[in-house]
UniProtKB/TrEMBL annotation:
The lineage of its organism: Bacteria, Bacillati, Actinomycetota, Actinomycetes, Streptosporangiales. This is DNA-binding NarL/FixJ family response regulator. PANTHER family: TRANSCRIPTIONAL REGULATORY PROTEIN NARL-RELATED, TWO-COMPONENT RESPONSE REGULATOR. The modification 4-aspartylphosphate is found at residue 55. Residues 154-219 form the HTH luxR-type domain. InterPro entries: CheY-like_superfamily (IPR011006), NreC/VraR/RcsB-like_REC (IPR058245), Sig_transdc_resp-reg_receiver (IPR001789), Tscrpt_reg_LuxR_C (IPR000792), WalR-like (IPR039420).
Amino acid sequence: MTIRVLLVDDQPLLRTGFRLILEAEPEITVVGEAGDGKAAQEQARALLPDVILMDVRMPGVDGIDATRRIVREAAHGAHVPRVLVLTTFDLDEYIVEALRAGASGFLLKDVPPEDLVQAIRVVAAGDAIVAPSVTRRLLDRFGAHLPSTRRPSAPVRLERLTERELEVLRLIARGMSNAEIAAELVVSETTVKTHVGNVLTKLGLRDRVQAVVLAYETGLITPGTTFS
């Protein structure tokens, strides 16, 4: 399967660098580029990419708003692109809002080329990228300051989960993969996949990224939590 990628960044040199990396992979094709969020929305509509690499800070329509618009528009159509947000981290304090807007994950802009390629493959396959170290640092740093960190309905939503499913949600929020969760709980990876699917279905979530955000929003995991 060929993965169609749209590059969105206001810096042409960065777009060129990403293009060179991605076009070296036989199963990835860069179908277009955009320098701002408005152009990204137009290109997404016209080119139907599988994955959109989205910068956060851009002139005019930023990456967060563009992600929100693209995901909302895609919800009414047959083609749903996956948005992978790129951030410099130290500068972008709105990355969690991008995840809430519908992004399927995020990476740092200095990510090694092989990790960027793998992330695109994972996202294109329908999963989400939640890097444990980045997720933890990001949500610990900004989670307490987000204006919508708690939703009244959240505790009721969590009551739908069994104790085992709550435990799996906590481990997802730590950024653990299915294999790592299986090792932690001493169960098969197939069993973990079933639990993860149940968690997403019962909570009405699209993917693991949304599960991480919800875990913080509900207080299941709190900023500053130390993991052993």
